[in-house]
Write a structure and sequence with these properties.
Layout (H helix, E strand, L loop, with lengths): L2 E4 L4 E6 L2 E7 L5 E8 L50 E4 L10 E9 L18 E10 L4 E10 L4 E10 L5 E13 L4 E7 L7 E6 L3 E6 L9 E9 L9 E7 L4 E7 L5 E7 L6 E3 L4 E3 L2 E7 L2 H16 L13 E3 L1 H4 L5 H13 L4 E4 L21 H4 L3 H10 L3 E6 L3 E2 L4 H5 L19 E2 L5 H17 L4 E4 L21 H19 L4 E4 L9 H6 L2 E3 L6 H11 L8 E2 L2 E2 L10 H9 L4 E3 L7 H23 L1 E6 L6 E7 L5 E8 L10 E2 L9 E4 L4 E4 H7 L1 E2 L8 E10 L2
Parallel strand pairs: 21-22, 21-31, 22-23, 23-26, 26-27, 27-28, 28-29, 30-31
Antiparallel strand pairs: 1-2, 2-3, 3-4, 5-10, 6-7, 7-8, 8-9, 9-19, 9-20, 10-17, 10-18, 11-12, 11-14, 13-16, 14-15, 15-20, 16-17, 24-25, 32-33, 33-34, 34-39, 35-38, 36-37, 36-39
The structure holds (2R,3S,4R,5S)-2-(hydroxymethyl)piperidine-3,4,5-triol.
(2R,3S,4R,5S)-2-(hydroxymethyl)piperidine-3,4,5-triol binds next to loops.
């Protein structure tokens, strides 16, 4: 049993893989946090209780002079009643009062894991994979019940948390803050690692020490965004890729998020994670429930790499779903960087013909095939095939592409509406807007109000009509701006601030409907590159286009950062022509980088010389041979592109019989010693043959003494080293 409760000490203990999480109900009914970290065997952990009574200016509850909520370690802190740190829950009464006092009511240990209605969440493949603790707290005065859920995964260092709030009283409650989880650590000797960025520069790694006050990651854009990811690691200051304690926090949500590490006056750290309280308010009427998104907590005693491998496994097997979860993903050619808006059916078929010579699996027709869409000024919302532009009906194009031996995929940007579109002319009110105020444009477009049932129904029907009209195997779902004028005239005034969250719920409803209707289609999420790369989207779409920046050397940083928490099989990555910034890199280097992802192409194959087409064919053969390793193997980062001219990582199969090492050198250094790469994750006693290197070495030699890489003489060199165990 992964979850234990000791009735005498009132201590809960959750064991998840090699980690333990413990909390205690105090005699006064408060739920105190005791411990989160490496597995411990004692259940009598009451000595870890931190009451914090007696600090000046930290008040105590009337019934508990021995403690202060301001300095205690709490599981779900409340606003307005004596804890001056960030609250997880803040509620406004009808009379304008705001103060919550939650006390323990009951608990239940559930086998398996309940679903989160209307929200993406991790799931179990077998009920024995995890147990869930549900602890119910209540504020009798408010008529508020809060059930805290903790799902402990038996075989993995992962716990997921969420909360369900219920109005059991007779007055309307306004939720002002409803975070998914809070973890009160007794110390603050941590570094925080986060993923920041911008368009074409997503998920760069940043590491800094915590400081008093707060380190806050958040989105106020309506989507998770390019700028900050809903992910953070808190780790020991000495933690490295391989060593030291680290905690990962990730929100399964695609809208405004908050991830905050607040160091308190006593030197503790409160980690808060959930929907951003910024501009948020939710009316909870008597009898109604509100479910927060799920937060994922991962523990590692083996450095940052341990967090990565736990999350990769969890997301690969317990978050991504459907037929494509484990299936080898197709190698695709996307026409965006080949043609932009300037294409017709003949051009696409010509690309497909070349693609067939390189053994590419699928052609994806990107933006520009519908409505009036010759540039980014118009057409979004009119999901009708522009036959005049293509020169034929869609079905005919698909048949021609299939005749070349390729499957067919298509691009949509369903959440958007161009002011210059038939849809806008018919339904100007379907765009998010504030009556009387001008509409802010992004890429010349507005955002549809997905809180309106009619809009959701329109999108499901229009997209389905296209997808059912012919044989479509793949959809790229784009989203090219953030939300402004976040208002819906259809909602009562009191519910105006619900639109941010209702938008995300509306999006999830559409995605769920399309997943159910088209289980055979591979969906790829995209947002001007990787502007909405989050676990929420991964639940509906197992891959996300990493970045519009397809320059391979830039991509190393983007993919390295992304790999911190997202599986390699979820990273959309293509070989492009010499494109951004005009940087010239060899095809082999571009191919090597793209292989650490879903793999595909984004260039005009009709302009590629025959010898490069042949080289692509060989790269595709290699990718297919190694795809199981890259998509399902354990991932180890060996050299960071943020620290110099090198980048290296490796993939190891679960049984450790096979591995692939990728080494990339940006600028060559002719007079330097050859790099020595210490591998990771191999079986120390096993003998590995290095394919094509005429060498056999033991795992321990490769991991401790290292592998010597020939010193790259040129810029942009890459090596792919395939290792296979040899018996005996
Ligand atoms: C942004 C995407 O990231 C690109 O790949 C491409 O699909 C364009 N949108 C099309 O407008």
């Amino acid at each position: 049993m992964a979850i234990l409760f000791d009735a005498q000490t009132q201590i809960f203990q959750l064991h998840a893989g090699d980690s333990t999480y413990a909390m205690q109900v105090s005699p006064e009914g408060y739920l105190f946090h005791l411990y989160y970290g490496k597995h411990v065997s004692d259940s009598a952990l009451g000595h870890l209780e931190v009451l914090g009574g007696g600090a000046s200016f930290s008040p105590n509850p009337a019934d508990a002079p021995r403690l202060s909520l301001d300095t205690a370690l709490l599981e779900y802190p409340c606003g307005g009643t004596g804890d001056f740190r960030r609250p997880a829950v803040q509620v406004l009464e009808e009379n304008g009062a705001s103060g919550v006092q939650l006390h323990y009511v009951s608990h239940e240990i559930l086998q398996g894991k309940p679903a989160l209605p209307g929200l993406p969440a991790t799931y179990l493949n077998d009920p024995a994979q995890a147990d869930t603790l549900a602890v119910t707290l209540a504020d009798e005065h408010l008529g508020l019940r809060v059930t805290l859920y903790y799902c402990a995964f038996a075989g993995q260092n992962a716990i997921t948390r969420w909360a369900v709030l219920q109005n059991t009283g007779s007055q309307r409650l306004e939720l002002r803050s409803i975070l998914s989880a809070c973890v009160d650590f007794p110390g603050s000797d941590f570094d925080m690692i986060s993923l920041h960025g911008a368009w074409a520069r997503e998920r760069y790694v940043e590491r800094h020490p915590l400081f008093h006050g707060g380190s806050t990651l958040q989105s106020r854009r309506g989507s998770s965004g390019h700028q900050l990811n809903p992910f953070a690691i808190l780790c020991a200051k000495t933690a490295t890729e391989e060593q030291g304690e680290a905690y990962g926090f990730h929100l399964v949500y695609s809208g405004n998020f908050l991830l905050d590490a607040e160091v308190s006056q006593m030197g503790g750290t409160r980690l808060s994670i959930g929907v951003n309280p910024y501009d948020f308010a939710w009316q909870l009427l008597p009898g109604e429930n509100f479910t927060t998104p799920e937060a994922v907590l991962a523990y590692s005693g083996e450095g940052l790499g341990g967090i990565t491998r736990t999350l990769h496994r969890l997301y690969r097997k317990n978050l991504c779903r459907g037929a494509w979860r484990d299936a080898p993903r197709p190698i695709l050619i996307n026409n965006w960087e080949a043609t932009y808006f300037n294409f017709d059916a003949d051009k696409l078929v010509a690309i497909a013909r070349q693609a067939a010579k390189a053994d590419i699996d699928m052609l994806v027709m990107d933006d520009g095939w519908f409505g009036k869409r010759e540039d980014d000024q118009s057409g979004l919302g009119d999901w009708f095939v522009n036959e005049a532009k293509l020169g034929c009906p869609l079905r005919e194009l698909v048949e021609r592409v299939k005749a070349e031996g390729l499957r067919f995929g298509i691009w949509f940007e369903p959440e958007m509406i161009s002011p210059d579109s038939d849809l806008f002319r018919a339904h100007p009110d379907w765009a998010l807007h504030i009556p009387g105020q001008s509409r802010t444009l992004g890429r010349n477009q507005c955002v549809l109000n997905l809180t309106l049932p009619a809009v959701r129904a329109y999108l499901i029907e229009q997209l389905s009509a296209v997808l059912e009209s012919t044989d479509i195997s793949y959809v790229k779902w784009d989203f090219n701006r953030n939300l402004t004028e976040v208002f819906s005239p259809a909602l009562p005034a009191a519910q105006g601030r619900e639109v941010w969250h209702r938008y995300v719920l509306g999006l999830y409803e559409i995605l769920e409907a399309l997943n159910v209707r088209f289980p055979q289609i591979l969906f790829e999420s995209c947002s001007g590159g990787g502007g909405r790369f989050d676990p929420g989207m991964l639940y509906y779409m197992p891959q996300t286009w990493c970045s519009d920046n397809t320059d391979a050397s830039e991509r190393l940083k983007i993919q390295y950062g992304t790999s911190l928490c997202y599986p390699i099989a979820s990273m959309g990555s293509h070989v492009a022509a010499i494109h951004q910034g005009g940087r010239q890199t060899p095809l082999s280097f571009r191919g090597g980088v793209a292989m650490a992802g879903t793999f595909g192409y984004e260039l005009d194959l009709t302009k590629i010389p025959p010898d490069e087409i042949l080289e692509m064919k060989q790269m595709n053969r290699n990718f297919r041979a190694w795809q199981k390793l890259t998509a399902q193997g354990d991932f180890y980062r060996l050299r960071s592109p943020f620290e110099g001219e090198e980048c290296a990582w490796m993939f190891v199969s679960e049984d450790k019989r096979e591995a692939l090492v990728q080494y990339f050198r940006l600028r060559g250094t002719p007079d330097a010693w050859p790099p020595r790469l210490r591998l990771q994750g191999l079986a120390p006693d096993a003998l590995y043959a290095l394919e094509g290197w005429n060498r056999t070495l033991h795992g321990d030699t490769l991991m401790h003494a290292g592998l010597v890489i020939p010193n790259p003489q040129q810029d942009y060199t890459d090596y792919n080293i395939h290792l296979k165990q040899v018996d005996g």
